[in-house]
Fold these 2 entries.
Entry 1:
Amino acid sequence: MTFTLTHIDHIQLAAPPNSESEARHFFGTVLELTEVEKPESLKKRGGVWFEFGSYQLHIGVEPAFSSAKKAHPGFYVKNLPAFKDHLTSFGISFIEDQNIPGVERIYVADPFDNRIEFLEKVNLPFSN
């Protein structure tokens, strides 16, 4: 019998202990993700879960926390310029990157200094 991976269920980012309030502000308020209740059996571990579309983002507490500087999730954004303005209104800085043809992208550090990428495909003029 063969198998097929069908989609990503969730992404998990690590955070230090007692950082749920910061996670709720950044991922819930700034990124406008919807918080979902963790199963009762997992609540004692700390952390907080969010969802967007058919995906979830889990912020898990790691006692010996170390931020992810290179490994990162990448999220598509509709209207990246408006998203950049939105981040700026919250005082959140970002790094712009145009190293992939036809893709505009930025990198943001979450409150725990984990790297997160946001990108949008852009139309390229036809070249003959």
Entry 2:
Amino acid sequence: MTRIDTPLSTCLWFDDRLEEAVAHYTSIFPRSSAGAMARNSDGTVLGAEWVLDGMPFRGINGGPVHAHFTEAVSISVRCADQAEVDRYWDALVDGGEESRCGWLKDRFGLSWQIVPQRLYDLLGDPDPARAQAAMQAMLTMSRIVVADLEAAADAAG
């Protein structure tokens, strides 16, 4: 198990499913690993450290009383292509729920944005009509579909 050596990391509050969340997340992303886990006297996990694709996280099992995940905080995943979008989307939405514009909530209630690099490219297109068409197409989607973004941009240009 690795210990996080950076002074900055994201800390997430789970009701009581931290150990399950760490196992789930680290199974999805490359360059990921579970780190140290602090356990209560009964063996349940109190806190944990883990790394997702090189990014450090910490978490606690704080119970349901004080905090819940909201869309105000999300983790954004920039994807190289549609295959990567589909892989992350399917793995993270399993047991959760789809939202709009590339957003989803996973089975733990944490919000994710699964965004193909191609969307950023199209939104930055020097032709404002193409960029706007790509934006309008994205606004109609749950999972972002690169081919549909490109078709919308091409129709406008």
